[in-house]
User: What shape does this take?
Amino acid sequence: MQYEPIKRTLGRFFARSPVLRKTLYFLLDILLLRTWHVKKALRKIAAQFPGEALILDAGSGFGQNTWRMSRMNSRWNIKAYDINKEQVDDCNIFCGKTGLSKRVSFYTCNLTALNDINCFDIILSVDVMEHIEEDVLVFQNFYKSLKNNGILLISTPSDKGGSDVHNDHEHSFIDEHVRDGYSIKNISDKLFLAGFKSIEAGYTYGKPGNISWRLSMKYPVKMLNISYFFFLILPFYYLVFFPVSLVLNLCDLSISHKTGTGLLVTARKLEK
Assistant: This one.
């Protein structure tokens, strides 16, 4: 299933004005369950950095996570890296129009070539690692880029069906994924080898979250891969199914999961 063409179409539409882009960010915040889990984790991390801090949004996409973090603390400076130059340019234009360009900036960057050294207090990576073949190299780059006692927060699909793959004969729901997901042991071992300590990983998208994902993301994306005509139908679709997804998201956020199709991972750089 092709996801990037849909993202490009949405991005071009919502890039027309700051109001439209803020509308996109609002919709993504309430629609995507991963955003709910990331926001909850970020609030805990933010309490450890109440003053000035330098943050990296590694794989910033539409820029919604950067926008959210810029509003969490006015003393934070944020760099956002993404491989898509068109999205980077759109986000920089948005920052200029909304007065954020003094402390928020977007750059085109391949994370495998990341060479910042001891720069960042926090690195956030949301739904990025499943797209990168050389993940160990990127984890090593993250480690080198963090200051001592800095924190890495990752949201990524798990190997428990995170890319909608449940056996060896199935393929990822998203064609752009290079892996079907991580196990907790696999990603924890790779982060440890990269140098990280205090690694904590837990499942997201349990049973309620998985149902919500199907209603709010999988089925709409499948429709749009058939024809963009379904853009006209989506508002009515979400009018029916969004309240259901909202309740399911609240349930998923409020309970712990023994298994799930998503992973939320935190790791800290602790030098001797």
